[in-house]
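Internal tracking record. Fields below are filled automatically when a chain is submitted to the structure queue. Please do not edit lines marked as system-generated. If the sequence contains nonstandard residues, flag them in the REMARKS field before resubmitting.
Queue: standard
Priority: normal
Entity type: single polypeptide chain
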Amino acid sequence: MNNCRQKLNSLGVEVPEILLPRNVGMKWPVIACDQFTQDRDYWERTKAAVSGSPSTLDLIFPEVFLSDADSADRIKNIHSTMSRFLKDEVFEKPRKGFIYLERDTPFHKKRRGLIAAIDLEKYEWKTGSRPLIRCTEGTVSDRLPPRMDIRRGAPLELPHVLLLIDDDTDSLLPAVAEMAKKNAHFYNTQLVMESGSVTGWFLDGAEDEKASAALSFITEKLEELCRRSAGRYEGGQPFLFAVGDGNHSLAAAKGIWEEYKTIHKNDYSHPCRYALVEIENIYDPAIQFEPIHRLVFNAGFDEIVSILSALPDFSCSHVDSSKELAMLCGNPSTANCFGVISEGRYALLETSASGIATACLQPLLDNALLNGKPLSIDYIHDKEELFRLSAINGTSGQTTGILLPPVQKSGLFETVGRLGPLPRKSFSMGHSCEKRFYLECRKLF
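SYSTEM-GENERATED OUTPUT FOLLOWS
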């Protein structure tokens, strides 16, 4: 058993001690903090839906509120609530092991995952690195300090990080499901805001024959995927896990670990060396990659069209409605296309630039910023939300939406292995309501 754990550690995986509340009901889990960043009403409705019971909403900082003047007080309240939940025994005793889970969403059924801890020593987001655990999109260093402030000194962590494995034969999670489902489920609950449901089964990390079989199987399959990756992607370095969602949260966790080990030079086994994640297979049919659209502030329709006119073989066609624009952008007739929405106007921009759409789009927006244009950008996950926000804010001509085409998930590992991270916010794993809900916890300090 110890040998099994040593092998897992070499793969960047740690068997975590997981905390769950005594009552996992609908009011406990809430969606990832980086969703609905322009929709305070969503979070107010969530607050109303979970009131009266302990909830993970009390333990997180929704990013829609990050710029508020009371952010420092909010962080203090989060940390004190974590301590109070521990003191008041809101949680059951911690259990060491993995959790196999299945999530039903309004769009897909039975998305499978495995809750585990990963070693932050095996992860790096900085350009040029080829670690075992790699980010798939660019990391914006300016976004890390507030996230590090939240994690620094926090007694608990809650995961919304999704790691992907490149398991094209789907050999790991279905087999783990068979083992896990021999036991009663660990939790089973509906999710607030009509976001579906989630069920989890515990895989015990105790040193007995039954537990050993499950951990040995997981170890064997991850070793197999790791060995294969070394010869499959450019550079010859093993590439086992790709960060599908939550890279900035993982990067913040890495930053706190680097701070800790600088101060405590002999303590390399502290819990903050690890981060709780959900591991999913990129080939799971319930995982659909969605584009992340851009909402640009302080720029009108004509200015955005002008900025994007630098695209190769650029053409611009005016469109009559949002419905028509969504249809045209969803079925591009050229290598790439974008929709522009503002001032009640719609346009389809087409280009011969190939590859993922953000690779040609983001540099143009970044260059506009570098050239002194007072733009700011938010990243919107659903096209309906983009159209809504563009209509609300577009009447002044100073807010413009950029609609992106569909994203293909095939080849993601090969592309990242060859070229490194994609431009930031290149894709989303599903719609906003399909994002990971905070549920499991782990002690940090």
